[in-house]
Amino acid sequence: MPPPPLPPSTEDATGCLSWLDSQKAKSVAFIGFGTVVNIPNSEIEELAEALEVCRIPFLWSLRDNMRDCLPNGFLDRTITHGKVVPWAPQIQVLGHSSIGVHMTHCGANSVYESIANGVPMICRPFFADNKLNARLIADEWRVGVRIDGGVFTKTGVAKSLDLILEREQGRTIRSRVQALKELVLKASAPGGRATQDFKILVEKITSV
Known about the structure:
The longest helix is centred in the C-terminal third of the chain and has 21 residues, at 168-188. By secondary structure, this protein is an alpha/beta fold. The two termini are 30 Å apart. It has a 6-stranded parallel β-sheet, with helices on both faces. It is 47% helix and 12% strand. It has a single domain, classed as 3-Layer(aba) Sandwich (Rossmann fold), CATH 3.40.50. It catalyses: an anthocyanidin + UDP-alpha-D-glucose + H(+) = an anthocyanidin 3-O-beta-D-glucoside + UDP. Keywords: Glycosyltransferase, Transferase. Pathway: Pigment biosynthesis; anthocyanin biosynthesis. Its EC number is 2.4.1.115.
């Protein structure tokens, strides 16, 4: 099914969507790692330093209990091109026209939502299915890249953002994820392959 429509601004509790409205198309890096992942303090610092130096517009969903890990003065120095919130409506954010890339831990829901909205991914997997999903994204589907060395560094983050948002390779990746998006939406539509497979599964379960 197609991505859900964006909610009205009255439902935009943290101001994410109204802020995105002021940004250029495909220009913003959305950074979100779900509600379970605890990023090492050192990696938060490296990621923040890269965002500050690159000056790429960014929306960062960062839990309040992790804000103390940000470099001193980071929020003030990036106020003109970044927004840090304790929570973001991820599906609506990924469906916004200003989003150019999703920096993600590669949880299954995040991967599906990125693909369903045609958004390339920068992968920093942590546990469970994350690493398998990252391999699929970067090596099999080729709709994203992995962070160099497997952990956030100032240099690695800057390199990945530049590649996806500025380079020809990034445009190629964007074309691939758009094509994959069409396949996913077709499969999940009424009568599509995914819908039919789910119907068969339900029939098998209920017939036992």
